[in-house]
Amino acid sequence: MTDTPKYIHAYRVIVERLKAGRYSIGSRLPTESDFALQFNVSRVTIRRALDMLVQDGYVERKQGSGYKILTLSPASDTCLTSFTDAMLRAGHEPASRFLALDLYKPSAKATRALPSGLQQCAVTRITRLREVDNEPQMLVMTYVPTDLLRDATAADFPEVGPGQSILRILSARFNLDWSAACEDISPIAADSKLARILKIKSGELLLKQSCSAFDDNGGVVFHEDVFRRGPLSFNLSQQSRTPRHL
């Protein structure tokens, strides 16, 4: 068996450091020279590892200023992105207020609007209020097959820090994996409940984003309904990333 190439070893170690919180979102990675010394390899080798991080969406390269950390949860080839990372990167302080953990039996009334793959099984719903700089920004309801979310409690959903990202919670805590997603976006008027939670007037327009994530076999891993207040912008890119199996 051949040894792991040095650039792949470096890539893996840097990713582990990112996920462990050693480098914060929005900060810059050590220089190529620093990494070359740390790993006892050439700058060419380190550059290959860093190129992989750029391709995977963890960092961006800025000419003359090194590598800036974008996210700890790259979107890969799905529409899913980390709200937590986006806010940290913009210099804001995100928080996640845990509201409820509800269990539904198959075909329950509350799950009739979900994808068909979630209507026929027991489902757990996690409800959280996302805040930015202490102001409510969106209500998030995440639906997951209960057998994929065994023994979940409120303690599994941190309210501060990078670990509050639902994408990282589902991946790291519950070992969920998804490879594709679809999204529907529509405006809605806030009812009295949404208005109270988001501290807005009843009838005020909100943006509803519904996103379903799927595994390689087309099974629904989770579905999320997000009710956002305020403006929302999108960045569209032709760039795609290739999933890695290292």
Topology:
Elements: H1 6-19, H2 32-39, H3 43-56, E1 59-62, E2 66-69, H4 83-89, E3 94-104, H5 116-119, E4 123-132, E5 135-145, H6 166-173, E6 180-189, H7 192-198, E7 205-214, E8 220-228
Antiparallel strand pairs: 1-2, 3-4, 4-5, 5-8, 6-7, 7-8
Helix pairs in contact: 1-3, 2-3
Task: Write up what this structure looks like.
- This protein is of the alpha+beta class and 246 residues long.
- It has two domains: 6-69, Orthogonal Bundle (Arc Repressor Mutant, subunit A), CATH 1.10.10.10; 83-228, Chorismate lyase.
- The protein has seven helices and eight strands; from the N terminus they run αααββαβαββαβαββ.
- The strands form two sheets. The protein has a six-stranded antiparallel sheet. A two-stranded antiparallel sheet has the order 1-2.
- α1 crosses α3 and α2 packs across α3 (43-56).
- The longest helix is centred in the first third of the chain and has 14 residues, at 6-19.
- It starts with 5 loop residues before the first helix and ends in an 18-residue tail after the last strand.
